[in-house]
Amino acid sequence: MKKRRWLAAAAVCLLLSGCGWLDGRYVSVTDHQTQLANEPGEVPSAANYGQLVVALENIVASGAESAAINVSDYPEDMVERGANSAAKHVMTYDPIAAYAVEDIVCELGTNLGQPALAVSVRYYHNKTEIQRIRTVKDTAEAETVIAQALEGFEAGIVLLVEDYQERDYTQMVLDYALENPQIVMETPQITEAVYGKDVSRVVELAFTYQNSRDSLRRMLSQVKPVFDSAALYVSGDDADRQKFSQLYAFLMERFDYKLETSITPAYSLLRHGVGDSRAFASVYAAMCRSAGLDCQVVTGTHGGEPWSWNIVMDNGVYYHVDLLRSMEEGGFREFLDREMGEYVWDYSAYPACVGYSSSVPTHETAPETETGSTTEETAEKN
Q1: What is the chain's Cα-based Rg?
Q2: What strands lie across the sheet with 317-321, from one edge to the other?
Q3: Looking at residue 333, what DSSP letter applies?
Q4: Per-residue exposure over 312-325, b if at least 16 CB sit within 10 Å of its own CB, e if not
Q5: DSSP states along 126-154
Q6: Helix H segments across 164-264?
Q7: H or E segment at 55?
Q8: 3-state DSSP call for residue 51?
């Protein structure tokens, strides 16, 4: 630390001496690497506060630890105050600076006989880390890149979102993992941070897995053939109800299942016969979607306990499907809202299951019907 401070002080003294910067090039020697902050003839100039902010943002974006800004046209009595204010502004509002910078110090001196600021930047994240920031246009592009990171079992990702909108990125990750158990072998622990206060923001997501990357890749290679087989198990000519029933049989007849929660739901369910209601619902939904069927996962409670099940669209009509309940009742079953007495869920978040093809989007506005619950009964009434 003393060595670094001595080097910084020496650099500032060189600037203030008026001896010039090696033909316009300022070299900062650090404990780890040498960085060229300004190439010859590229020393930026600032004649007002706005230009000073832009110059500091560019220095930070380059990852330079030391640089110069010519301020010969900046009002002399305002330059130091403007520099301090600009440094605070950049560290607060600029997303990259807010993410990467610990401190910015500006000292007034001369460069080749002209008034100039010697800028010293101390970083939380170095130049290499800054260069690894991935730039995306908006939330939709961010979702795509985050999905790729999850599919690659990466330890995290840092995004510069140019058109930032408030979004729960942690929930985005959880939703993707639930909807894609055939890809995401383990849902990571997620740490989320957002930096900056401008239109653009830096979003940092850190993922912590209990299994190694190699282990997760092996799991993926072992469950992929099962999901591929499920897609081939149903016939394209069969009715939707028959396909749902076939996939139910494909999944439920694999093991005498043991109901336990696992951090690797798809792998544990398909390779070892261990899973909870959430694992069954997410894996079944993924198999149905791969077969071109409309199936989603519902999260709620059953008998006061956390529980997950499915809602399927069968011949244009929505039904609840609880695989574990069907297993207890001896075979594939579809249920209407009125038959879900012990279940609680967010009715406004899922389609109403009322027993007929309806444009009514929510449970509250859909009337009850007398449609039966079993596959055979619903077939007769359709």
Answers
A1: 30
A2: 317-321, 305-314, 295-302, 343-344
A3: B
A4: bbbeebbbbbbbbb
A5: -HHHHHTPEEESSHHHHHHHHHHHHHTT-
A6: 169-179, 213-233, 240-252
A7: helix 49-62
A8: helix
pLDDT in tens, 337-368: 999 999 999 999 999 999 876 544 444 443 34
Residues 65-113: tens digit of each pLDDT = 999 999 999 999 999 999 999 999 999 999 999 999 999 999 999 888 8
Residue 41 pLDDT? 52
All residue ranges of the chain with pLDDT < 50 are 1-38, 40, 359-382
**Mapped to the 3 state alphabet, what secondary structure does 97-114 carry?**
HHHHEEEEEEEEEEECCE
> What tokens appear for 132 in the block?
């690894």
Look up tokens 């730039």; give the residue.
135
Whose CA is closest to 68, among 59, 78, 77?
Answer: 59
Contact 55, 46 (CB under 8 A): yes
Rounded to 10°, the helix 79-93/49-62 angle is 50
| Pick from 333, 372, 330, 309: nearest CA to 244 | 333
Is-contact 205 190, C-beta < 8 A? yes
Query: What pLDDT does 140 receive?
Result: 96
Predicted model pTM: 0.78
In whole angstroms, give the CA distance from residue 86 to residue 76: 15
